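tool=predict chain=A
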Amino acid sequence: MKIGFCSDHAGFDYKTRLIEALQQKGYETVDFGTDSTASMDYPDVAHPLAEAVENGTVDCGIAMCGTGNGMAMTLNKHQGIRAGLAWNREIGELVRQHNNANVLVMPARFIAFEEVLVITSAWLDTPFEGGRHQKRIDKIPVRK
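tool=predict ok
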């Protein structure tokens, strides 16, 4: 599985450590930035990650910023993205199980790195339930 990553300056450290941990588990990774803790604008990295998920360059994505909200808002502007914000294991499971989130977003300033590992594992290991949830997911994209 190929996973795309992005973060702003607040999530840079966790993103870097998570990429290394997942590479050790055999995952292929693509880092869309940022590449330092210097202040930057999260949409500059969120949009390229979203486009890569939408076009299949990566299978899914993981994004981090201070609260996770800016990343989630930006990612979810893309019609093919279902970015779920998770701050504990159970929510990480549910955004996959019920929403089939193709991007996991976490709040780097509000959770410990150990929780990032737990949430990520839960999200990657939880299958989508389908059924009634698919009908709901089909209603998410804006239709003009």
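The CA atoms of residues 22 and 28 lie 8 Å apart. The mean pLDDT is 97.
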